[in-house]
Predict the 3D structure of the following.
Amino acid sequence: MADAFEDLDFEFATDVADKAMRSITAQRVPPTPNNFNVWFRYVLGAPPELKRTIDILLGNKRPFDATTNRDLFATYVGSKAMDDAVAHNVSQQLHSVMQSAREFLATAISDNRTQIRAISEVAGRSETGTDPKLLVETLMNELAKAATRAARLEARFAEKSRELDLIRESLTKSEERARTDALTGLPNRRALEEFFRTAQTSVMEQGQPLSAMLIDIDHFKRFNDSFGHGVGDQVLRLVAKALRERIREVDLPARYGGEELIAVLPGADLTAATATAERIRRSISECKITRRSTGEVLPGITVSIGVGQFQFGESMDDLIEHCNRALYQAKKSGRNLVVAENELAHARYVG
């Protein structure tokens, strides 16, 4: 994207750069190359999603801290493409397809000229009194040749079309892998961050709530130490399944790290999110895991859940910190509990 603005007029580019620097100074943003790139694009209005997001952040008096600046650059300026190996492979495949397309087009043009010359010759012979029957046969032969060439080209085009479909499928799968946690099948941290940015912008525009819950498996180390990592992985997958099945389609469940899972719930306030968390906690506590090899029923699984609500202008890290404090209180209070952030003041007072 660095080359996108090379054709800008000098005077215009200078004016945009000056406005970008004034904006950076006004918002106390460090004038690093990445930050300048973001604000230059903001002033220019491209991409429009960047301008819209910054306008909302400005409207909500959101401070442009290091996390926000990094997120803006990563989302709207920095490369989020596939890994180099996949990108190179796709580039090579596309080059091959395009080269074939050029060859097909050149062949089609050549065949068309050949056909026109052949038909012109038949037409010329008709004026010299050649036997009409012979002319018809000759014309039919030329048309048959043209049809054969066209069918051959069509088959080759169809083959390349299938190659493009495979490339598109490869890109889709690559993107899915880059956004999915291999163990649980849930979206990963990258997908979580992308979802939160979109949800954050949407709820601030519409004045709606947004909540999140942070889920930690109680005594997870015990499963790994006592029964092996295979059982620990099974526990993680079971909790991930319970989470996925008990939230709405508009919500995003994700693996946050280690034995922690997270869910972001756009449109849900703290009360609604806490009720959802309680249903998840209860359903997990009722689950049983049996070792396939021995039929042994393993100890029950419980989770502790901290719930927090997004405040306009906060970052994702801020929201997760709300959840993390509530989660800490849930564990401190005995585990297998759901604690919402609004309960923390009361918990401190009681303690």
Q: What stands out?
A: The CA atoms of residues 91 and 192 lie 28 Å apart.
